[in-house]
Amino acid sequence: MTATALAAEVGLTVAPCHRRLKDLEGAGVISGYRAVIDPASVGLGFEALVFVTLAKVDRATMDEFEAAVTANGHITSAQRLFGDPDYILRVMAEDLSAYQRFFDDELTMLPGVQRVSSTLVMKNLKPGAGLPL
Hints:
Blueprint: H1 3-10, H2 14-26, E1 46-54, H3 59-71, E2 75-80, E3 87-93, H4 96-105, E4 113-120
Antiparallel strand pairs: 1-3, 1-4, 2-3
């Protein structure tokens, strides 16, 4: 949304709206902007949620695993969890065959992995939903 459209939406003129945006950016409340891309339109119409349990949960293993996950472009989201499993990953691929290769060649080879299981996403109801503000 442009600053002009935002100003109209919140009932401000453009100058104070722009100033408030800059203040929010400067304070770190707004950390960036992004384009929302339809995965299927760029050949990534297959999505899986992957549950990972590590063989050993110590700082060195977690650091190595997290660094490898962060560096992998097909893993678009990753959260460390309390309990079992240790992590949940969101993985994008071209299709089932591409995901199967990624699962076999990359996911199972991540540092410290004991067990990997996944479920396929049938329908994404709230892709990229923002914070409830």
